[in-house]
Amino acid sequence: MASFCPHCSNPSPDEARFCMTCGRERLPVAAAPPPPPPPAYGPGSVPGPVQPSPLGAFFGRVFRGDWLSSAKAAAWPAGLLLVMAVALAIPSYGQDDEVVVGWSDRLRIALAMLLQGVGGGFEMKASGGSSPFGSDYDTSGGGPSGFGAPGTDAMGAASLSLVPLTVTLLWIGALCLGARMLRTRGAGLEAAVRLSLLVTGLVLALALFAQPEIQGVEISSSPLLAALGALAISLVVSCGVLQRDDLADWLAQRPGARSAVRAFGTAVRALGAVVALCSLVGFVAYAGADDVDGTALLIALPILPNIGFAVLGLSWGVPVKFDVQGQFGMVGSRAESGSFGLSEIRDVWGNGAVAGALSIGVVCALTFGVGAARRSADRREQLAAGGFSLGLVLLFTGVSGVSAKIEGGLADWGGRGTSEFAPSVPDALLFGLLWVGAAIFLGPYVLRLVGQQALIPPAPPAVPMPPAYGPGAGYAPGVAAAAEPALPGVPPGGPAAPPAPADVPDHPATVAAAPSAPYAVGPHTMHLGAAPAPVSPGVAPVPGAAERKRKVLVWTATLTAAFVIGGGATAGALLLKNNNDESGPAQNKPPAASQSATPDQDGQNQPNQQPSASAAPAISPSSPSASLFASPSASQGSGTLPAGFVLKQDPAGFAVGVMDGWQRRQSGTQIFYEAPTGGAYLQIGIIRNTPTSSYENFLGLEAKHAQTPGTDYRRSRLIQNTYQGRPGALWEFTHIPEPDESSLRRHVIDQAFVAADGTEYAILAAGRADLWDASKDVVFSTATSTFTLN
Known about the structure:
42% of the residues lie in helices and 17% in strands. By secondary structure, it is an alpha+beta fold. The protein has an 8-stranded antiparallel β-sheet. It has a 7-stranded antiparallel β-sheet with strand order 13-14-15-19-18-17-16, with helices on both faces. It starts with a strand and ends with a strand.
């Protein structure tokens, strides 16, 4: 058969190698492939569709489920936030005639404040707003542009950190109600995810709505943080409610986890009762204060548990601390800190208020102890409940405080500041260990006094009891007798045989008193040949007057012991703390002969005058007044750093402890460590090969200060001492450094000494004179105790 040439498409014989028409070589034709072998097995079935993964199937059920029921459940927590915001927006808050913030703006502000209870924030930012002085006010002294012109207005930002625990607890309660509605319809884990997603979406929408802008001030509620917090809380709560049965089955197979969960539940119950009591006490005390009206009480309602934790801490000896720091242009910096505890309560309201506070502390501690003893199956679970109680107290104490931060500028004025008002968590840990530990120890004894017993773990299923009128079919007397619970006066083994002499209980006095104490016998039970056993002490009849008196005495002794242990430990710790605080400033005080009331008395106007007994006598290293600074050379650098301090290795050849965050600056041979807020600083001066002593150098500097007009120099002390085994001097004074610009008085304290190589080092700490307190000084004392030469 002829084939065709691939080049010219003309037919040619199959055996011809070259085309007979075009003469080109023809390509060999490839042989056909062999047919495939027959399959070893018959054709299988057609594969079905690919099944989704378990996770994919779960989310498929989530999105195909009943969203309407989940939406109804999610309306509870969202509606609660709206109702509370509406209630808080009703008062005008002092806006009488001219209403600047309307009802809708107040509603959005209140909603932003409430969303902090689920993780949101509250921030304010002003940029380019109108001037509070009007557009005609001129800051340039007659310039063409007024204060309201763009670029010259007030600018700044402020933030408030406060977790209203009332909102958090009520929101969780509303979420539980919604989840229980779904549980009654047989919903499972898929419904929990749907509910959480809907709640998160509603919270996000409310947070976006709660961002008003009022006269150039923008308010932000941190919508993303609020949504994430709502998602986390709603997932945990809804899964716990809807999967309660599955969780119970899982815990039934794990005794350790079941005991831990039961202990945690005990701690939550006790904490709820304690916080309710302390919140009520705090609210009543706040309502009775002066200048507290209905609006103030309404504002206090969202933070009632916060007040309750503060009251609980005060009743246990935990002070509420406050710290305010700020820096303002043309004014300077200011820092103020303190605490309010039992000593301040005594100063304001007297010893009766302290006794009442400690009584509340005893009641709260015993609530934890008795609750743990009553609901715990064993001692380990009781200790676990106490640990959970203390942990919850510390957790909520840490989040119950309030802090604020503000910074901004107004024309040539500017500043920034921070403030914090919160209970002390370290003190709460210390006193919580004392009070809760004592309560956990005394809890079982208090429980016995009131005639109750601790929780008994459930026993395994027993064989059903036989009918009282006789054994029926299949009744085994031995088994029934063993399974029958022991009745008072009935031997556990039944009336099969009289007891042997060795088995007779050795309670002759109790048996002899049998006629006056009737035995408890079942109505259809007859015992033959066995003497009745004595009545069990646990079911004794009502005690007489002597027994009641004994219980009253034991109860009184227990309460007294709890009061003494908790209150005594609290008072002792506070006394020890006060003694430690007072010991430092007592050492800093120079002898009376070295102090002067006026500059004329201490000789500041006579710089060349030699030190005398009335001015500044030389003090030996053994003098008590110089004990803080006159330490032997072997102890240099042995001071420990307090919290918030770091040890700086300075390039100038020394190391010193300064506050964390202070910035280093050098001017010639003077090294400065300055606070970021300004005002306070630490200065290290270095003079190589000094020809004079530190005391003589201070006298010369004092003469220059005295001759400068307007500084109002006042010497506090100028003494010779020994610092780290070297001769030195201590100089403390106040003055006005810049009388032409400000009348702000500065306090300066300077410790100088001459090293072995002839170099003089001066350690100087300066700050505002009205804020100086020797008993609370940490900057100068830390610097002098940690200063070392490299």
